[in-house]
Design goal:
There is one protein chain. The protein folds into 3 domains: 145 residues, Alpha-D-Glucose-1,6-Bisphosphate, Chain A, domain 3 (3-Layer(aba) Sandwich); 207 residues, Alpha-D-Glucose-1,6-Bisphosphate, Chain A, domain 3 (3-Layer(aba) Sandwich); 77 residues, 2-Layer Sandwich (TATA-Binding Protein). The protein contains 15 helices and 20 strands. By secondary structure, the protein is an alpha/beta fold. It is 37% helix and 23% strand. Strand 12, helix 10 and strand 13 form a beta-alpha-beta unit. The protein starts with 7 loop residues before the first strand and ends with a helix. The strands form 5 sheets. A 7-stranded mixed beta sheet has the order 1-2-6-5-3-4-7, with helices on both faces. A 5-stranded antiparallel beta sheet has the order 16-20-19-18-17, with helices on one face. It has a 4-stranded mixed beta sheet with strand order 9-8-10-11, with helices on both faces.
């Protein structure tokens, strides 16, 4: 019987530390579980980031799928948005992306999507883990073992579909220059092609494969945003963007080198791409209500899980939704966050209304925030944040290059780096200094 003491279901995804918790043998068995659940002759599409362990785990998982008679369409190194786009294109029953963790070094996450392009729920993933534990796998006969097909032309189809989906002419008629940090991810395969066709000047950073023997994360490091901000100002670009390694998240810097908070970008995209309603999570700032409700929008909030916003968009038939960790979903295209499409929508926005992002963000109404400094001893403030979000005693946590949000006593708090040894604790709802001090003490204990 397979022993699974550590193949985790963590914050809505299956994953593990490579070659200790998550070995090729376990990955192959998990692939066989998914193949058994979907049935013989099912089509499954797969992709990965550039990180070598992702390739190893994907190949083992693919072998497991084949052993059950499933057909695998493999896109090699490909972004998550392209993978999800391909699910419907190829009539697949599922798609699986293998990507590095947001905060755990040498940790691989499985992003498993259903036939609609929505991530598997925690219940469904738990069912997979239970089937694996009980070895509920049905192997096919040798003559019916599945095939692997390579379809790298998906990049061309995705590019053409994106350009067809947006209003391209205003972008083409505006001379735009942008900087993009690709965080060592495969967005480099399609981004230059898309922007070339739109007449946008592109300067890329970290567009190569990850440095050897150096840990990488899916979410860009805070220093990435600092470098991007300086580069945007120095080069006179219209904006800068930083993608997650799998291009599902995007973080934006305006032409003055000032980062937009994810909620600010949410409001701007909603104003010009949604009608009547939007969907977000319970952890996002109240600036969404303050900015969108006066315009007649209804805001639906859901607890964050990797699938919650997507499912709500489909159930309520809403056009736009997103989170406060840089994920934006345009349900008319797919039900998955797409950083590349989000960038094109930003370019479309500033081209149509002929305003820079710094002007547009001034129109956003922000709520009052209450803050308290926290002195950090014995470690760098950034390291303290990463240590904190890895702590399993937290109710929940959200990581971005701009801030970290933690859930304590069923309330969300924001932590920002003020200096090398100082954090700022923020809340929109708790004005009492004594209550904030109590939360600060709990944070220090967790560290």
């Amino acid at each position: 019987m397979i022993i699974l003491p550590s193949l985790r279901l963590s914050r809505g995804r299956i994953g593990g530390y490579v070659n200790t918790e998550l070995t090729p043998e376990i990955a192959a068995e998990l692939g066989a579980v998914l193949g058994t659940m979907l049935g013989e002759r099912s089509i499954i599409v797969t992709a990965r980031d550039y990180y070598p362990p992702s390739r190893m785990i994907k190949r083992a998982f693919t072998a497991g799928l084949m052993s059950t008679g499933a057909t695998v369409i493999d896109f090699h190194a490909t972004t998550t948005p392209e993978l999800v786009f391909a699910i419907k294109r190829f009539g697949a029953k599922a798609g699986v992306q293998f990507t590095v963790s947001n905060v755990e070094e040498n940790y691989i996450n499985f992003k498993i999507f259903d036939f609609q392009g929505i991530e598997y729920s925690a219940d469904r993933l738990d069912n997979m883990r239970e089937r694996l534990r009980r070895e509920k796998i049905i192997r096919t006969r040798p003559e019916r073992i599945g095939w692997v097909t390579y379809a790298e032309y998906i990049h061309d189809i995705y590019v053409a579909s994106l350009i067809n989906y947006i209003d391209a002419d205003p972008i083409i008629n505006t001379n735009l220059k942008i900087l993009a940090d690709l965080n060592y991810g495969p967005a480099n395969i399609v981004l230059s092609d898309i922007l070339s066709q739109l007449g946008v000047d592109l300067i890329t950073l970290n567009a190569h494969k990850p440095p050897l023997y150096k840990g990488v994360f899916n979410i860009p490091h805070p220093e990435t945003i600092n470098v991007l901000s300086k580069a945007v100002k120095a080069m006179g670009a219209n904006l800068g963007v930083a993608f997650s390694a799998d291009a599902s998240h995007i973080f934006v810097v305006d032409e003055q080198g000032i980062p937009l908070e994810p909620e600010e970008l949410f409001v701007l995209l909603a104003r010009f791409n949604a009608s009547e309603a939007v969907i977000t999570t319970t952890s996002t700032s109240q600036l969404i209500e303050k900015s969108l409700e006066p315009l007649g929008f209804k805001i639906y909030r859901v607890e964050y899980t990797p699938d919650s916003v997507s499912r709500s968009l489909r159930r309520k038939r809403v056009a736009f939704g997103g989170t406060d960790c840089g994920e934006y979903i345009f349900s008319g295209f797919t039900y998955s966050p797409d950083g590349i499409l989000s960038l094109l929508k930003i370019l479309e926005l500033i081209s149509k209304i002929d305003k820079q992002l710094s002007e547009l963000r001034k129109e956003i109404r922000k709520p009052r925030r209450y803050s308290l400094p926290i002195e950090i001893e014995k470690m760098n403030a950034y390291n303290a944040l990463y240590k904190l979000v890895r702590n399993r005693e937290l109710d929940d946590a959200i990581v971005t290059p701009l801030y970290t949000k933690i859930k304590v006593l069923n309330r969300w708090f924001t932590l920002r780096v003020e200096s090398e040894n100082k954090l700022i604790l923020e809340s929109e709802k708790i004005a009492s200094k004594s209550k904030l001090e109590s939360i600060a003490e709990q944070i220090k204990l967790l560290l």
